[in-house]
Recover the amino acids of this structure.
């Protein structure tokens, strides 16, 4: 949600806030724009996975019936994703934790995760989603969100379609493209992404991979350090070795 045009404060993204209903409507409209554009450009199947806070802001019953709607399920970040898909579009994206002028920048948890590294490289949710899709040889074909998130996606994935619909003014405020204009830009980018999809390669870092997480406090690392296969590096840092990018996020509860 953080990268959707019209969402300008942290209250927009929080459960229980009066602003959430407006934000959900903005999210739904942006998703509908992508669904429309995808089918107009030749898609035969579209699956929308709502991953904000584990899912919930996008109410499938009110959405376009041509698409399928889902949320993460257990260890499956995007349950329907498999090697029959031609591309992954990342919509409403935010930059990784610690990004200057990234609107509501964070990686997975703004409350606990300070820094996440994959094979020694600092990365955020864009890289994690791209690696997850790469397990199935599915490339990311488009990233939409704030200016910092789009820059992060392009730096990581190369010449993919990017749509910046807002820019962060510090972390907690954003200046947005008007919603109608944002939808025009997103629709054009989806069509361009479809044209370029066949030439794009999936993101596949080397395996086995080292994943290292630094928390904000040492007590946050205490619990994670007890998980199977986890090594404690220092007071706030733990790491694991993974053999599949389906396990790109191994430090969740119970993992």
């Amino acid at each position: 949600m953080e990268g959707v045009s019209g969402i300008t404060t942290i209250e927009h993204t929080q459960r229980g806030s009066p602003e959430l209903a407006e934000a959900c409507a903005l999210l739904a409209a942006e998703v509908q724009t992508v669904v429309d554009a995808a089918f107009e450009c030749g898609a035969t199947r579209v699956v929308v996975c709502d991953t904000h806070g584990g899912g919930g802001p996008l109410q499938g019953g009110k959405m376009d019936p041509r698409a399928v709607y889902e949320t993460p399920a257990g260890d499956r970040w995007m349950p329907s994703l498999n090697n029959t898909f031609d591309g992954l579009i990342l919509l409403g994206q935010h930059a990784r934790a610690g990004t200057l002028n990234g609107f509501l920048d964070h990686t997975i948890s703004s409350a606990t995760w300070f820094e996440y590294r994959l094979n020694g490289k600092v990365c955020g949710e864009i890289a994690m989603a791209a690696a997850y899709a790469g397990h199935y040889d599915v490339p990311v074909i488009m990233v939409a969100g704030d200016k910092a998130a789009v820059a992060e996606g392009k730096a990581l994935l190369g010449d993919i379609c990017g749509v910046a619909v807002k820019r962060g003014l510090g972390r907690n405020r954003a200046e947005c493209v008007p919603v109608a204009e944002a939808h025009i830009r997103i629709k054009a980018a989806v069509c361009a992404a479809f044209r370029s999809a066949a030439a794009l390669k999936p993101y596949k870092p080397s395996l086995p991979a080292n994943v290292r997480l630094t928390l904000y406090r040492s007590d946050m690392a205490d619990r994670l350090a007890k998980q199977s296969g986890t090594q404690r590096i220092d007071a706030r840092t733990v790491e694991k070795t993974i053999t599949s990018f389906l396990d790109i996020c191994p430090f969740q509860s119970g993992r």
User: Anything to note?
Assistant: The CA atoms of residues 25 and 58 lie 8 Å apart.
